[in-house]
Amino acid sequence: MILLGLETATAQAGVALIGSGGIRASFHLLNEGRHAESLAPAIEFVCRQTRTDLKDVTAVVVDVGPGRFTGLRVGVATAKAIAFAGNIPIVPVSSLELLAFPVRLGKRKIVSVIDALSDEVYYGIYEPDSIGGGVRMVAEPVVATPQDLVMRIRAMDEEVLIVGDGGRRYAEAFAGLNHVEIAPAGLQYPSATSLVEIGEIRASRGELMSAADVQIFYLRKPYAHLKE
């Protein structure tokens, strides 16, 4: 099984390939949302470097949000085009779960926070899943103000790790909270490598979708005045 992962939910774009031997290649570029320009060359690059033809890919894994509207549309449309052309399935993954996945070791609750612009954030709460090998969602993703999230974390009254670009942008708002740590800058964007690792787990369980059934998880309606 060879999986191709496409990550375009935030300012960073990523592409990764995983096969039976593990991660074959990955490419990440912080391009502030210009994913329409960089995604196709990135796919070509990882395929060329690993001598993989798109016809050899058995499933596409794609971040379906929440995140930046334009980036999500580019990533999901590309995933669907590849899936339709190759008659292969798609594994959809949440951007908030992707943020939590690399920091799942430990016992703290993980709060994934993505900058939603317009002084709001998308966030979800997760905990390590020792049985499944990933993370388990303990609170449904929502869009809220940073101040609303501060109150939510304060009410939890337990050790928390905040991860994501929203956590770093509004770090001052979280500074007064006890038992709260903000993850390093290198973990602030969803990773294409985490994407294909999660995709591999789900594909092995048969958790696949047809391209026609995959939908973007916007979490809120687009605002015309938002600048991406």
Task: Write up this protein.
The protein has 228 residues and is of the alpha/beta class. The chain contains 7 helices and 10 strands. The strands form 2 sheets. The protein has a 5-stranded mixed beta sheet, with helices on both faces. The longest helix is centred in the middle third of the chain and has 18 residues.
Key traits:
globular, Nucleotidyltransferase, domain 5, 7 helices, 228 residues, alpha/beta, single chain, 10 strands, disordered C terminus
Largest sheet: 5 strands, mixed
User: Could you tell me the strand content as a percent range?
Assistant: 25-35%
Q: How many structural domains in the coordinates?
A: 2
Measured distance between first and last alpha carbons: 35 Å
Structural class: alpha/beta
CATH architecture of the largest domain: 2-Layer Sandwich
Task: Detail the poorly predicted runs.
Answer: 224-228
Q: What is the CATH superfamily of the largest domain?
A: ATPase, nucleotide binding domain
Q: How would you describe the shape? A: globular
Average of per-residue pLDDT values = 94
- As a percent range, the share of helical residues equals 25-40%
The spatial strand order of the largest sheet comes to 3-2-1-4-5
Per-chain topology:
Layout: E1 3-7, E2 12-19, E3 22-30, H1 35-49, E4 59-63, H2 69-86, E5 90-93, H3 95-100, E6 109-117, E7 120-129, E8 134-144, H4 146-156, E9 160-163, H5 165-169, H6 171-174, E10 180-182, H7 192-204
Parallel strand pairs: 1-4, 4-5, 6-9, 9-10
Antiparallel strand pairs: 1-2, 2-3, 6-7, 7-8
